[in-house]
Amino acid sequence: MREFLHSKRFKILLAVFAVLVGFMLYAASTEGSATLPGKILSAITAPLQKLSSSISGTATGFLGNFTNAGKTAEENKKLREEIAKLREELVDFETYKAENKQLKEMIGLKEANEDFEMANASVIARDPADRFSSFQIDKGSIHGVSFHDPVISSDGLVGYVTQVNATSSRVTTILSPEINVGAYGVHSNDTGVLTGDAALSQKGYCKLQYLLRETGIAKGDTIVTTGVSGIFPKGLVIGTVEEVKPESHGASVYAVVNPAADIENLKDVFIITDFLGQGGDAADTTSGNGSSGGNSSKGTSSQNASSGNTSSGGSSSKASSGQTSSKRGN
Questions:
Q1: How far apart (Å, rounded) are the C-alpha atoms in residues 179 and 120?
Q2: Inter-residue contact 193 to 328 (CB < 8 Å)
Q3: N or C: which end of the chain has fewer CB within 10 A?
Q4: Contact at 8 Å (CB) between 217 and 190?
Q5: Over the stretch 131-174, which tens digit does the pLDDT of each residue have?
Q6: How confident is the model at residue 214 (pLDDT cuts 50, 70, 90)?
């Protein structure tokens, strides 16, 4: 240390310091007026002051961030909780919105069909291997659903229940050959039996068969249920005719029907658990443009005969346990 104090380097530093102190004292004595020595001193000290300020600002910012880290984490936690709550509320809103839409549709159907007793249901599962678009719904026997209850949407007929569990059911659609529905054209009044077809189902269509070659049913005709079997109410919209084609045997023709209900994309449906005439069974024999029989899982059977282009249904009784079937229409 003693050697450094006696060294030439120390003397130079001491001289520079003395000069700086002298400049500072001189600047103070001039009361802040910009003199030449003051300008020189300012030019020398300004970079040092700037560097010092920068270092001080950086240190202050770093320490501030470190100090506020806990506060920021707490705010982030609260924001995440608020976002989660908003998401739950959005899901609830969409659920209520869907339920409200279903109820409005049900009320509309109920007003148009006062004798209907209905239950709304949601589609919960589909079988990708089923080319006829059958599906499972979230309503079963504990909700009043029974075998062969008709299933509809706000647009039209979808199918009927073919399997009932306690809390779920299987619905077979009108695209399936398993279903036979007595139906007629609104404009022509010609009757036939609507069923599914393997080829047509790939396009989402079904067929109205057993039509005479001179039938009045044509493209654009609306097809509705006859209601003669007691399985389906009368007047349910099925769909519209796309074209009329001859059967391979040539004795009759059939109409390709585009269902009114979007069967392949349904999310919600209605089950008709009761209606006026449900459970009646009629085998309709005609000499005109069509015939239809029926199945009944809830009642007794009766038979009616008619001629020409009209069909009539039978009586209804839910006290009987009989079940009948026919391949010519429900």
A1: 22
A2: yes
A3: N
A4: yes
A5: 999 999 999 999 999 999 999 998 999 999 999 999 999 999 99
A6: very high
